[in-house]
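Proteins fold reproducibly. Consider a sample protein:
=====
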Amino acid sequence: MPKEYYLKTPLSEDDVRQLKVGDIVYLSGVVVTARDEAHKIALEKYERGEKLPINFGEVAVYHCGPVIKKIDDKWEVVAAGPTTSTRMELFEDKFIKIFKTRMIIGKGGMGSKTTAACKEVGAIYAAFTGGAAILAANAIKKVKTVYWLEELGMPEALWVFEVENFGPLIVTIDAHGNNLFEDVSKKVRERRNIAYKMAGVD
């Protein structure tokens, strides 16, 4: 049976190793948005030996292009739904291995390279419900700061959020090499092949 966990950043390896696919997590602490451009720039800066504005090992990384407005001198999150994560598959395994990020949040699942990196490092990928941008925004209690806004624009910048019980997040890749999306896809293919065989379809 899936279990429910309430966790807080910074996450330890022990925190995430206890989780299994299907478990539900509510996260408090610091979450940083990062899409493909931010992943690319972070890795490039690391390889050049430049200092990064965030310790990605102490936060959860959220695949999200938020809608944010500024009222006086304060940022207010309007919507913060997840971005489809497959576009980050190109970078995520290297990102996890280098920065030791313990939790990646997004939607739609990720592939075998990310799964392998999660197992090696001790990290998880957790899915947030697509279309629930307002629910996500409600769990964000504060915009602490933003980086790379001028260079990348609002959707691609590193937004640093303070969150409380952010979720529900469903663990779809755990730190033991299990990938819920890949498992389901495999079962669907197997059942489809059986159905085709029974129907006499090659």
Observations:
- The first strand starts at residue 4 and ends at 8.
- DSSP finds seven helices and nine strands in the chain.
- The chain has a mean pLDDT of 89.
